[in-house]
Each structure stands twice: as C-alpha cells, then as structure tokens.
Design a protein that fits this description.
Strand order of the largest sheet: 5-4-3-6-7-9-8
Structural class: alpha/beta
Radius of gyration: 20 Å
Helix content: 25-40%
Distance between the termini: 63 Å
C-alpha cells in the first residue's frame, strides 16, 4: 500500500510537470472516481498510461456527451465538445413526435454519440436512427453505448408508432453504392462527422491522438486516394445523397467539417447534390464547424 502511495505521488508530480497542477489534479480526481466505479487498473497504472500520452477518456473508459456518459474504447474516435455543441443545436431545430417521427442516418457514427444524443433529447417514440461505420470496433461500441443509454438497438417489428426511440448500428462502407440495402430510406435527417484531416495536418497532431485513435477515423483522404485536401469523404457522401429516394422534401443534412473546409464542403453540397439552401455554423471557438443543408 505504501509503495503504491509513493508511486502515485511520484507519477502525479510528473503529471503536474506535463499538464499543470490544475489539470493534473482534476484528472487524478477522475481516475480515483473511475477506480471506485469499476474494476479499473491500479491508480499508478492509470497515471503511467496518462504520462505515456494515452487520452484520459480511454483510461477512464467513459466520456460525457451532453447528459450522456458514453463508453470509450481504443481505437474508436473520442467524441469532441464541438460535436456535442452542434448536436444540441440540431436537436433544438426539430420537434419530432410519435405521430410525426423522424428517421435519422448518421454516417461514420463511431461511438454513436450524435444519434444517441438526439434519441435522448427527442420525445420517446419520435426517432428511428441508424448509425453506419466501417469499423467493427465502432459498431460494437455504438451498440454497447445504446444499451448503456437504454435505447433499443434493434429494428422495430412494424412501422406503426412505437413507444421508444431506436438506434440501430449498421456495419457499412460509404464507398459501397448498395449501402442503403441495409437501411430504410428516405431519411429526414442525415448527419456525419467523417474523417476530414489532411495528411499534412495529421502528421502534426499530438501523440495522444496519432498513437491511440484510429487513423481511418481521422484521415480525410484514404491512402489510395488521389486527393490530398481532406475532402474525400464529403465527395463520397455527396454521391450517396444524389441517389434517388435517399432524401425527402424537407430533409436536413448536417456535416461536421475541419478548419477552413466549410466553404469547400458547402460547394460540394450545392454543386454535386443540388442543395442550394445551405448555411454554416460556427462552434464555440469561432471555427466554421458544420455545413447544414435543407432539401
């Protein structure tokens, strides 16, 4: 016990040097809470992982997203506060009801954070959401998060009004033109936080991101892509949106974008999909973060 206490003091001192006393103290408190709440590793092991650069959310195993407390596991992308911000804003725009429900499609769903927060915020029985991802790790995590949030993750047996919101994770590839065979278009809302970081910017990311989070969830251009602007997935999404029957009159498309990408993505939606009614939302840090389009 004494050796553990000594190790904690030494590791905490190093963490203070790395993060500053206020942040280190806050993170130590959260680690202690995680130890009490679960069968986590020892406190020295958690501190050492943090000193190695591992994201705190992976060490704790959870992260807040609005009122939700979502599971986080490597290598699935950790939900960011800017995504939380625009998801709240989107939820406030719409008012689905059990008699006038909405069907939501979230592309590159990851943890499932966006559709799960919408399902939580909107009235029970008003929302049927699908989350598509190419990562089996992400699909498993999104399914576990649905269970954690008490949101069913299975297809209702009929199209009649139902009492709960539903979130259905679906394994799928945006490059597959037949992806909608596993879904039920048309959709009232399509959201996405796709990979959008250009390779030149990815190379400059901190170790805590590059060494732990899935590169496929971050790099905006796959290794075999001829593009280098981080916009490959927006072009793929535009191809999907052009398919007949995917959108209905009044549908909303909300796409998160990286820094200095909003104008280009707005142009893709206008020119490639024909969605002329567009706007750009800024995040709390004054960055153009979301391109929103109405059909």
């Amino acid at each position: 016990m004494r050796s553990d206490s000594t190790a904690v003091k030494q590791l905490f001192t190093r963490l203070v040097s790395s993060l500053g006393r206020e942040t280190a103290t806050r993170e130590l408190k959260w680690m202690k809470q995680a130890l009490i709440a679960s069968h986590s590793p020892t406190l020295p092991a958690m501190l050492q992982r943090r000193l190695n650069g591992e994201p705190l959310q992976y060490i704790l195993g959870t992260t807040p997203f609005g009122p939700l407390d979502l599971l986080t596991r490597p290598p699935t992308l950790i939900p960011r506060p800017e995504t939380e911000d625009w998801t709240f804003r989107l939820a406030d725009m719409l008012s689905p009801t059990p008699t006038r429900p909405l069907t939501v499609l979230d592309l590159c769903t990851g943890t499932g954070c966006i559709p799960l927060l919408l399902c939580h915020l909107w009235p029970p029985g008003s929302t049927r959401a699908y989350g598509v991802d190419i990562s089996q790790d992400a699909i498993r995590l999104a399914t576990d998060n649905a269970a954690r949030c008490n949101i069913p993750s299975f297809q209702p047996s009929s199209m009649t009004p139902y009492s709960q919101n539903v979130f259905i994770p679906v394994f799928g590839d945006l490059r597959d033109p037949d992806i909608f065979k596993h879904l039920q278009p048309p959709f009232d809302v399509i959201t996405a936080n796709p990979p959008y970081i250009p390779k030149r910017d990815y190379d400059l990311l901190p170790v805590s991101v590059k060494n732990y989070e899935d590169p496929a969830a971050l790099l905006g251009d796959p290794p075999d892509s001829e593009e280098h602007d981080g916009l490959t997935f927006y072009r793929l999404i535009s191809q999907l949106l052009r398919q007949k029957g995917v959108l209905r009159d009044g549908s909303i498309v909300a796409l998160e974008v990286g820094q200095a990408q909003a104008d280009a993505v707005e142009g893709i939606l206008q020119q490639s999909v024909g969605l002329r009614n567009t706007q750009v939302w800024k995040d709390p840090w004054n960055v153009k973060r979301v391109v929103l389009a109405r059909v």
